[in-house]
Amino acid sequence: MTLPSERRRSSTNWEAGFDMGDRCWIRLTIHGHIDNLVVFEEVLEALDKEGLYSDEGHDDMAREFAHALAFETNPQFQEDECNYANIDDAEAVLREYGIVYHVEHGAGDDYGASAWSWTKEHGKHATLLTHDGDAIVDVASLEEALKDEEPIEELKRIIAARKKACGEGLPQFSVGEVVKRHLATLLAVETLSPETV
Fold first, then answer.
1. 10 lies in a domain?
2. Cα–Cα distance for residue pair 158/12, rounded to 1 Å
3. Residue 1 CB neighbours (<10 A)
4. Total structural domains in the chain?
5. What domain range is 83 assigned to?
6. In this structure, are strands 101-105 and 76-83 parallel, antiparallel, or unpaired?
7. Does 133 map to a domain?
8. How would you classify the pairing of strands 101-105 and 23-30?
9. Helix extents (H) in 11-138
């Protein structure tokens, strides 16, 4: 399976006078643990460089992290016009620090929607998605599974991999105490709770 971010093609918009690639919406959800301020600041910088912004509409990304902690959710960041679903630089920073994440994007002009997740233990799992956001298992994979000595076990493995790609079973987002205090200080509150963020 070739994900759109692996294609790196572009089309030229001659009337506008610039190169423009095939664009789609993309959403990054952080599931892992950020232990210290150095890592937190590098993650914020990487998200900003990719042009990602808070999925909740917060005016800054730090507030999105605080909101996620207060409401016990995972912070989400998105981009409406991402070139070939490419957020490689942000993903590289997350992988460097072993931070679990999930990515989902819509279809572009010449590629379908897909999703992937990454964990330090299992690496990257990816799948194409239907227009409704359901994982796709291609016929070739099913045919290969049926040739296996244990076809039911192989089918279970394929399904489990697709579920991982869609973000199932990933850990809850968390931060170290230093990061939590830093976020509370930025928001000028004593503790992060639904009432204070």
1. no
2. 38
3. 12
4. 1
5. 21-186
6. unpaired
7. yes
8. antiparallel
9. 37-49, 61-70, 88-96
Place of tokens 């296996």: 148
* Residue 135 covered by a domain: yes
Residue 134 tokens, joined: 């359901």
Pairing between β-strand 11-13 and β-strand 76-83 as defined by DSSP bridges: unpaired
Cβ of 106: how many Cβ atoms within 10 Å? 19
CA dist list (Å): 186 to 121, 147, 196? 33, 57, 12
Q: Which residues are bridge partners to 13 per DSSP?
A: 18
pLDDT in tens, 129-175: 998 889 999 999 999 999 999 999 999 999 999 999 999 999 999 99
**Beta 33-34 vs 174-175: how paired, if at all?**
parallel
What lies within 8 Å, CB to CB, of 30 at 6+ separation is 43, 74, 75, 76, 77, 94, 99, 100, 101, 173
Tokens 């994007």 map to which residue? 105
DSSP string, 36-73: SHHHHHHHHHHHHHTT-EETT--SSHHHHHHHHHHTT-
Q: Which residues pair with 26 in a beta bridge?
A: 79, 105
pTM of the full predicted structure?
Answer: 0.84
